Amino acid sequence: MATPDAKPAKTAVQLKTPKGTRDWSGADMHLRDEVFQTITDVFKRHGGTPLDTPVFELKEILAGKYGEDARLMYDLEDQGGELCSLRFDLTVPFARWLAMNNIQQVKRYQIAKVYRRDQPAIARGRLREFHQCDFDIAGVYDPMIPDAEILRVVVEVFRALQLDITIKMNHRRILDGLFAVSGVPADRIRPISSAVDKLDKMPWAEVKKEMVEEKGLPEDVADRIGGYVQRSGTIRDMLKTLQADAELCANGDVKAGLDDVSLLADYLEALEVADTVSFDLSLARGLDYYTGLIFEVIVNHPSSTLTTANGTTATIPAESVGDGSEEGAKQQSASKKGKKAGEDPASQVGSIAAGGRYDNLVGMYGRRQIPCVGISFGVDRIFTILKARREQEEESRRTRLTDVYVMAFGGKEFDGLLLERMAVARRLWDAGVRTEFAPKVKPRLPQQFKAAGDVPLAVILGQDELAAGQVRLKVLGQGEDDEKDRGRLVAMDDLVSEVKKLLL
Amino acid sequence: MATPDAKPAKTAVQLKTPKGTRDWSGADMHLRDEVFQTITDVFKRHGGTPLDTPVFELKEILAGKYGEDARLMYDLEDQGGELCSLRFDLTVPFARWLAMNNIQQVKRYQIAKVYRRDQPAIARGRLREFHQCDFDIAGVYDPMIPDAEILRVVVEVFRALQLDITIKMNHRRILDGLFAVSGVPADRIRPISSAVDKLDKMPWAEVKKEMVEEKGLPEDVADRIGGYVQRSGTIRDMLKTLQADAELCANGDVKAGLDDVSLLADYLEALEVADTVSFDLSLARGLDYYTGLIFEVIVNHPSSTLTTANGTTATIPAESVGDGSEEGAKQQSASKKGKKAGEDPASQVGSIAAGGRYDNLVGMYGRRQIPCVGISFGVDRIFTILKARREQEEESRRTRLTDVYVMAFGGKEFDGLLLERMAVARRLWDAGVRTEFAPKVKPRLPQQFKAAGDVPLAVILGQDELAAGQVRLKVLGQGEDDEKDRGRLVAMDDLVSEVKKLLL
């Protein structure tokens, strides 16, 4: 019977997180930690060393690195002193760190949040505060060896995450050479390249239309491009085809690129990664700073992965991974055009990792060039896929990871046995076992079973058993039977070892 | 022979991190990760569930929580939309999360950076971007059970970190009652309390002087206070003394506080923690929001811990842990007065963890009160102590954690065996072994030994051995002998198991 007058007079604080941000807790947080741990294990296996940089950088460090996307940067208020902005990606702070410390070679990884004042779409996982997870190899090495290792890292990460993927790969110099041979003027290569990059989302006819009508390319030039960029296949097959094309190979960039890819093919075979790679001439990647190998990772069977248990289809975030929102914008516009683009669900998912070689970025800080190749995993997008799969598999979504719940029961004279429960918990903690008990002096048994929730084991104390130096140990999860069957007797001194056996 | 003219004309970007921030990498980063992992393991052992909140919060959420320290808050620039600030601690975001999600009970932990525009002193580890590491128990429970578990968590953390500590403990209601009984007017209790809190850094005569001369307290009132607050001892001894003081116990606050501490004593004994606790009536803690138990953790023998290998004394950061810079300021001023305060090095170290019960903070968001008790670990300060100890022990400071370096050697016809090295690395990676190899086609053997650095094992390939299906496995670290002795022969198929045996 609330009347308008019943509203509280004072304006309460709005209880929310800032636009485009979220809290992480419970099952989501556990799954996110699992993903981070899995990826970190692979990075360490390859000699990766962690780097952590401040959440904000001097504005002048970030300036001139992101083109027009820089308008999405979060600035700190000028409160006197230096002007700073929140980091926009992890690549520029890495380049700053290399230059600042004059580091000649390193394998570094970093998992951290980055910040972009983009239009958020939280339901699709498109946030203003989101994660990047980068592994980069910096240093002067023999050609393509680090590049091959990066692709090996990609394969190991997704094998560990049990995601079936394809690495789409291309080479900037082959692409640039191919445009030149087709008759694209040097100053038109980047815009034409960005049109070609949409081929995974649009049919060729539409891409051609954009090149001819919007970008003013002669139709015969567009057709020549089309003859090349619609090709993809295994590295060996594509190499054979391209190396047989005398006109193409006469171009110095193409020749150099093919030499790189040829070396790479040998290395990927030695590393047993070649089968996962598709050499796709339409792959262009958004950012200007790539100078050699470029690649993107897509999930092979997203349709089966993405149907959730209740039959709805999980939506995969379309934000950019790794290198700026140009990519994200591309995918957003592509998903609007989803129906025209055909019904392949893979095209809706977009890439879940991406990277390439960037040999000139560190030199922008006015010191020595340090060639780099790296990969950025789109953790939020990977998280969304794994979460949908986990829900589909109806795996338990435990919010805590406690192993043992210590309970007590008794008759009329029952005093709750709190100190005894504490002493048993202390034994288990001392042994490293994750243990809880009801923080009540005299809890009732049903309360304790309820509080135990999804904890797998119970230790149940009773006055008589304690007097005999014993406790009851019970595997939980038997539903109704839990309260009837109070488990088997175990000597107090054997408790830790018995619990550990059951937890194995 | 550089002349002034030789200077580069263009103004280079200043390569630095913003004031009061730092990068973390190499051995520091590994040690920091170890500390985080150790602490997290203990939190999980107690049923803790992780929370991660955005790095910035709405300004109005943070408003009115930090008193005059709020001037140290970092604001984001108003770029249209909501006004936000970087988080100042982890307690207020936790309270916001509890209120926003109407969570009635939880054990949550959070390890994250917080931001304060304080005057940095980087050499002493006093930074503007620094870590907090919080564990809090929220919910209505029987009295003192969660409080006892928090102290147990403290003991387990420092036992795991192998730091010998004392928990100094007091109770806000005992302290308030004691001031009232001594004759302090109610509105003078907080300033007098803050003077008393300096007793661990100053002799009583100085504290008394401050109370009488600066804060206008009658001398006899100050003397009565002095009679109480200079007392500390075991919980049981102090309880006996205080409970025997009829005048004190007639005060309702004192009585209630002593009942709490009496319960706590039982629980701490059951949890085998009581020996670590000192009941210290001078402990007051800075923040207003504490309502019951308060505590601080100090290192027992910092002098031995803090002398580094080269004989210099490591300086421990003096910033606040957990609850605002008031504490930090107090410690800074105390360290200026270090000589007057006597030569006990413990007084220079300050607290490395602190916390208490705060039952009214969540209710400030206009919803239901949720009583909380928590602890905040000063991770940067703990890190500094452990780093000094590690240097003292001259432990290896490995910057990477690679287990195996795969090498090759050969005579005149040696082609570098790159593909073979890759194939062996791939085998080891498949088995989860952390492996690297020289990213060169034809590396020389000394180069490879140099690159292996502190990696403990080498697998050495030779053409003849490979032809026989064998490789050489060698434990590194023999200095000069490394290049002469090329290890023992192992069948390729046994390599993984042999390596794993050596890594155990």
From TrEMBL, chains A, B:
Domain Aminoacyl-transfer RNA synthetases class-II family profile: 20-386
Keywords: Nucleotide-binding
Pfam families xref list: HGTP_anticodon, tRNA-synt_His
CDD domains hit by this protein: HisRS-like_core
Location of region: Disordered: 1-23, 308-349
Its EC number(s): 6.1.1.21
Compositionally biased tracts (Low complexity): 308-318
Record has Nucleotide-binding as a keyword: yes
Domain of life: Eukaryota
Swiss-Prot/TrEMBL catalytic activity: tRNA(His) + L-histidine + ATP = L-histidyl-tRNA(His) + AMP + diphosphate + H(+)
InterPro entries: aa-tRNA-synth_II, aa-tRNA-synth_II/BPL/LPL, Anticodon-bd, Anticodon-bd_dom_sf, HisRS-like_core, HisRS/HisZ
Family membership noted in the UniProt record: Belongs to the class-II aminoacyl-tRNA synthetase family.
Name of the protein in its database record: histidine--tRNA ligase
